[in-house]
């Protein structure tokens, strides 16, 4: 038994040592800066000569060429939504047609403002184009086949409904939500597989930011785990784009006081009128909460007998609704769990990464205390500096 555990721990240590090389997409961000600032004349030619050929495809994925403005919107009769299978504890659905496997991820725009609607259409189209160019090089995101668009009317209000259609690689089967896996304690085969799941989620979030979007809904319900039939491990993919928007785009400054959503929100984003506009670092905080659950392999949210959401024993006394806790005390408790529970479960390196995510906006944080260090015109260097801190 000792030999088996030691082997598992050694594998996890090896995986953590590879974290930098597998998670590090800072060089992609640097290439993005180069593409933006050296895009003229001889300077661009010289830059292209210095960059490996492989970078051309990576740069083009984040900035598709004009010909990528293909027919993004699909024919509605091509996919019968009513035959799609529900995925437990996830808003996305699974659709199969012959040998084709698709994930259907829907979002709704209820705004009556023409400006708001046009911005949503623009963002949906842009995301679909960029993820269409995406070749799934291991960044935890599906390739987008296109978008279904339809107009509906609900309670005398016109609504725009979009469904992002994602292609599932043929070597991935049985999409299940991470929430379901955590609740049923269906543990991966080894600690190294747990680390890999955390890595893939971190890379997916970083790649979304590389594409100039914020996700705004990172939680276990927005993460799918699929079985890789060739390598026999669980692969993590990020979905749940119901609230995404262009980074730096229009924000309504609307938050949520619903505790399950609040659990994954930074304290300054809590409540119906949050203090701060949503920025990329708020996604990083949500990522930290998810990485904590992954490392512990324990859900912080449970479902009661009648289907109501209830907090787990780990956090129930720290919620504002408990009468004893507050949104800030909950955050501090999550940091404490990362410090005390994660090291003996999965190692100190993983625990440090989780704590870094949870405290990324803290004024007194040794790594991120000086906010001016992370400010630049396009936000790209913010990403580079942040990833450097995660090494």
Give your account of this protein's structure.
Residues 89-375 form the Protein kinase domain. Helix 10 runs antiparallel to helix 13 (348-358) and helix 11 (327-340) runs antiparallel to helix 13. Strand 2 (90-97) and strand 3 (100-109) form a beta hairpin. The chain has 14 helices and twelve strands. The protein has 391 residues and is α+β, with helices and mostly antiparallel strands. A five-stranded antiparallel beta sheet has the order 1-2-3-5-4, with helices on one face. It has a three-stranded antiparallel beta sheet with strand order 6-8-9.
Give the SSE map.
Layout: H1 2-17, H2 19-23, H3 26-37, H4 41-50, H5 54-62, E1 85-87, E2 90-97, E3 100-109, H6 114-133, E4 143-154, E5 157-167, E6 172-177, H7 178-183, H8 191-210, E7 213-214, E8 223-228, E9 233-238, E10 245-246, H9 259-262, H10 280-296, E11 301-303, E12 309-311, H11 327-340, H12 342-346, H13 348-358, H14 380-389
Antiparallel strand pairs: 1-2, 2-3, 3-5, 4-5, 6-8, 7-10, 8-9, 11-12
- Rounded to an integer in angstroms, the radius of gyration calculated over CA atoms is 21 Å
- Give the ordered list of helices and strands: HHHHHEEEHEEEHHEEEEHHEEHHHH
User: Whole-number average pLDDT?
Assistant: 79
Individual helix count: 14
Q: What is the total tally of β strands?
A: 12
The best one-word shape is: globular
Quaternary organization: single chain
Q: Please bin the fraction of helical residues.
A: 40-55%
Q: Structural class, judged by helices and strands?
A: alpha+beta
Described by strand count, sense and barrel closure, the largest sheet is: 5 strands, antiparallel
Beta-strand content: 15-25%
Poorly predicted ranges: 37-58
Widest beta sheet: strand line-up: 1-2-3-5-4
Distance between the termini: 32 Å
Domain Protein kinase: 89-375
GO molecular function: ATP binding; protein kinase activity
Protein name: Protein kinase domain-containing protein
Organism: Fusarium pseudograminearum (strain CS3096)
């Amino acid at each position: 038994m000792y030999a088996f555990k030691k082997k598992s721990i050694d594998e996890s240590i090896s995986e953590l040592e590879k974290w930098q090389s597998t998670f590090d997409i800072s060089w992609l961000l640097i290439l993005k800066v180069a593409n933006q600032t050296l895009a003229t004349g001889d300077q661009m030619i010289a830059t292209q000569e210095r960059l490996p050929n492989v970078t051309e495809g990576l740069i083009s994925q984040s900035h598709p060429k004009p010909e990528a403005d293909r027919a993004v919107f699909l024919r509605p009769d091509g996919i019968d939504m009513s035959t799609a299978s529900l995925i437990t504890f996830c808003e996305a659905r699974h659709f199969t047609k012959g040998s084709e496997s698709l994930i259907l991820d829907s979002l709704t725009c209820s705004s009556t403002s023409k400006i708001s609607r046009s911005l949503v259409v623009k963002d949906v189209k842009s995301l679909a184009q960029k993820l269409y160019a995406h070749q799934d090089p291991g960044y935890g995101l599906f390739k987008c086949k296109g978008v279904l668009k339809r107009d509906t009317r609900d309670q005398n209000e016109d609504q725009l409904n979009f469904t992002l259609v994602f292609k599932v690689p043929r070597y991935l089967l049985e999409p299940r939500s991470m929430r379901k896996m955590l609740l049923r304690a269906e543990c991966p085969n080894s600690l190294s597989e747990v680390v890999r799941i955390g890595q893939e989620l971190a890379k997916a979030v970083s790649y979304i930011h590389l594409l100039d979007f914020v996700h705004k809904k990172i939680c276990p319900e927005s993460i799918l785990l699929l079985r890789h039939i060739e390598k026999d491990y669980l692969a993590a993919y990020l979905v749940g784009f119901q609230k995404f928007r262009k980074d730096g785009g229009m924000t309504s400054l609307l938050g949520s006081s619903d505790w399950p959503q609040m659990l994954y929100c930074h304290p300054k984003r809590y409540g119906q009128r949050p203090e701060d506009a949503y920025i990329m670092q708020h996604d990083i905080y949500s990522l930290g909460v998810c990485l904590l659950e992954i490392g512990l392999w324990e859900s912080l949210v449970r479902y009661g007998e009648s289907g109501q959401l209830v907090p787990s024993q780990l956090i129930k006394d720290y919620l504002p609704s408990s009468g004893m806790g507050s949104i800030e005390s909950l955050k501090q408790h999550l940091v404490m769990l990362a410090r005390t529970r994660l090291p003996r479960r999965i190692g100190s390196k993983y625990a440090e990464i989780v704590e870094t995510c949870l405290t990324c906006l803290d004024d007194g944080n040794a790594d991120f205390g000086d906010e001016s260090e992370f400010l630049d015109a396009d936000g790209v260097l913010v990403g580079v500096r942040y990833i450097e801190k995660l090494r």
